[in-house]
Write a structure and sequence with these properties.
single chain, alpha/beta, Rossmann fold, 2 domains, 9-stranded mixed β-sheet, 14 strands, 32% helix, disordered N terminus
C-alpha cells in the first residue's frame, strides 16, 4: 500500500467482507444427507471448583489485589463511519454486570485504556499499549490488524471482533468466532451461498466486489461455490465484477449488465454506502423488485431504518447470533436486558463487545484463582466446543487457532450461519426453524459434496459454554 487513500480502500473492503467472511467459521462441506447434529455445549471451565471469589496474589501484568486491567484498540476513526468503537460499550456492559455480582477472583474488571488506531495506525497503537498500559488483556475491533505479530510475540491474551486473517495462528488469540477461511482456495461461507440462492428460488446470480483481496476473494470464492454446486441448486453466476473502487458512486454500467443478463440474485462485498448506491441504481433501472439482494455486511438497524424502502426484501448474513431469532437464548437475552436497562445501544458491535467480554470472563474462570497468562491460555486452549452460551457456533480451541486455509482439519466440524430478512425497516429472522434452531449448519470438513443442512441451536442447558 503506497498511500493513505489506498490503505483506506483496503480497510473498507475488509469491513465489506466482514459478515460474508466472519459468519463462516469455516468452509462448509459434507457427505450427502443432513449435517451432523453437534450441539457442542461443553462446560466452559477447566478449573474444577464452583467458587470464583478466591482472591490470591497473581503474578501477571495489569492485576492488582482489587482489579484486573484491560485495554481496547478499535478503529473509532474509519473512512466508512463504522461503529467499531461501540465494542467498548459492550465490553463495559458485561464487565459492569460481572462487577455488580462481586467481580471475578475477588477483583473488579476495568478498562483502563481505550485506543483509537485511526484505521491505519494499529501497529503504532499496539506498540504504545504494550509499552505503557500494563494490562492483563487486550480487546480489538479493527480494520487492519497490523499489530497482531506484536501481540502474539508478547503472549498477551487477546480477544475481539474477527474480520482479519491475522487472528489465525497465535494460541493467545481468542476472537469471537474461530479464524476465518480467507483466500483464493477457500470460501468464507462455503455452501451457504448456493444454499440461500436455492432457498430463494433464484437462478441467475451476480457477485460484485471491490478490487482488493478482502473483497474480491470473498466474491470470487462465493461465485466458485455456486458454480461448483450449480447443478444441485439450479443456479449459475451470470455476472461478476470485482474491479470496483471504493467511493464509486456510479453503478449504472454494472446494473445495466445485470438487467441485460436477467440477474435475480445479487451478492456483494461492499460497504453500506456501496450497497445503498447499487440498490438506488437498481430502482432507477427498474429491477430492484426483481432481484434478491444478499447483504453480507449490513446488519445495522439504524442504516436499515433510514433506508427501508430501498433495502426491503434484502437478506443479511450475520456473523454472530442475530437478536431477531425467537426465542432468544438466555446468554443473548442477558445482553438485551442489560442494554435496555442501562441505555446501551443494541447493535452488532455492542453485541460483539459483550461476546468478547463474556469469553474473557469464562477464560478467567477456566484458569483458576492463579490466573497467570500461561494458566489462562493453557486452560482455555483445552476448550473443544465453546459457543458463548449459544451466541456463536462451536469453537474448538485445541485446533482452531490454526489457519483454516492450510487444511480442512483446522476447520470446524460444523459451518453455521444465520440469516435475517429486511422488512418494513427491521430485521426478521428467517430459515431458523421458527426461531428455535437459528443456525443453518453444514458439515465443515468435506467441502466438495452437496448436502442438506440442518437447523441447530447451541444454547446450552446451563449458563456456561
Amino acid at each position: 500500500m503506497q498511500s493513505r487513500s489506498r490503505r483506506f480502500t483496503a480497510t473498507i473492503c475488509s469491513v465489506a467482507a466482514l459478515s460474508l467472511a466472519a459468519s463462516a467459521c469455516t468452509n462448509a462441506s459434507s457427505s450427502k444427507g443432513a449435517a451432523p447434529s453437534e450441539t457442542g455445549s461443553a462446560t466452559a471451565t477447566t478449573y474444577q471448583g464452583t467458587d470464583f471469589t478466591t482472591n490470591q496474589p497473581v503474578n501477571a501484568p495489569g492485576v492488582t489485589s482489587t482489579e484486573i486491567h484491560v485495554a481496547t484498540i478499535t478503529s473509532k476513526t474509519n473512512p466508512i463511519g463504522g461503529d467499531n468503537v461501540l465494542l467498548n460499550d459492550g465490553i463495559q456492559g458485561y464487565f459492569d454486570l460481572v462487577n455488580s455480582k462481586g467481580g471475578i477472583w475477588g477483583r473488579q474488571l476495568k478498562i483502563t485504556n481505550k485506543h483509537d488506531d485511526q484505521t491505519v495506525a494499529n501497529l503504532n497503537e499496539t506498540q504504545a499499549m504494550l509499552a505503557q498500559d500494563n494490562v492483563y488483556a487486550v480487546f480489538e475491533a479493527v480494520e487492519l490488524f497490523t499489530g497482531a505479530k506484536l501481540l502474539a510475540k508478547k503472549g498477551i491474551p487477546t480477544f475481539g471482533w474477527n474480520i482479519n486473517a491475522e487472528w489465525a495462528g497465535p494460541t493467545n488469540f481468542f476472537p469471537n468466532i474461530a479464524p476465518i477461511c480467507f483466500g483464493k482456495t477457500c470460501s468464507a461461507i462455503g455452501k451457504a451461498m448456493p444454499w440461500i440462492v436455492q432457498q430463494e428460488g433464484k437462478h441467475k446470480v451476480a457477485v460484485i466486489g471491490y478490487d482488493v483481496p478482502q473483497s474480491s476473494d470473498a466474491m470470487t470464492s462465493s461465485a466458485r461455490e455456486i458454480e461448483k454446486f450449480s447443478k444441485d441448486v439450479d443456479a449459475q453466476v451470470v455476472y461478476q465484477d470485482v474491479s470496483l473502487q471504493f467511493g464509486q458512486t456510479d453503478y449504472s454500467a454494472q446494473v445495466a449488465q445485470m438487467k441485460q443478463k436477467g440477474v435475480d440474485f445479487l451478492a456483494t462485498a461492499l460497504d453500506f454506502n456501496g450497497d445503498y448506491a447499487i440498490a438506488k441504481e437498481m430502482q432507477r433501472q427498474g429491477i430492484l423488485d426483481k432481484v434478491t439482494f444478499f447483504h453480507p455486511n449490513l446488519y445495522n438497524p439504524d442504516f436499515l431504518a433510514k433506508n427501508a424502502a430501498l433495502l426491503e426484501g434484502g437478506i443479511a448474513l450475520i456473523p454472530v447470533l442475530a437478536i431477531e431469532h425467537k426465542p432468544v437464548p438466555p446468554a443473548l437475552q442477558e445482553y438485551l436486558d442489560y442494554a435496555q436497562s442501562h441505555d446501551i445501544k443494541v447493535t452488532e458491535m455492542t453485541e460483539e463487545g459483550w461476546i468478547a467480554a463474556r469469553q474473557f470472563v469464562d477464560a478467567l474462570k477456566a484458569a483458576g484463582p492463579d490466573f497467570t497468562w500461561a494458566h489462562l491460555i493453557g486452560a482455555w486452549n483445552q476448550q473443544t466446543a465453546y459457543t458463548n452460551g449459544g451466541i456463536v457456533p462451536p469453537i474448538d480451541w485445541t485446533r482452531q487457532h490454526n489457519d483454516p486455509t492450510k487444511s480442512v482439519a483446522n476447520r470446524s466440524k460444523l459451518q453455521c450461519v444465520n440469516f435475517a430478512r429486511m422488512h418494513d425497516g427491521k430485521f426478521v429472522g428467517i430459515y431458523d426453524d421458527g426461531g428455535a434452531k437459528p443456525w443453518v449448519c453444514f458439515h465443515g470438513q468435506q467441502p466438495d459434496t452437496w448436502e442438506k443442512p440442518e437447523n441447530l441451536s447451541f444454547a446450552p442447558a446451563t449458563s456456561g459454554g
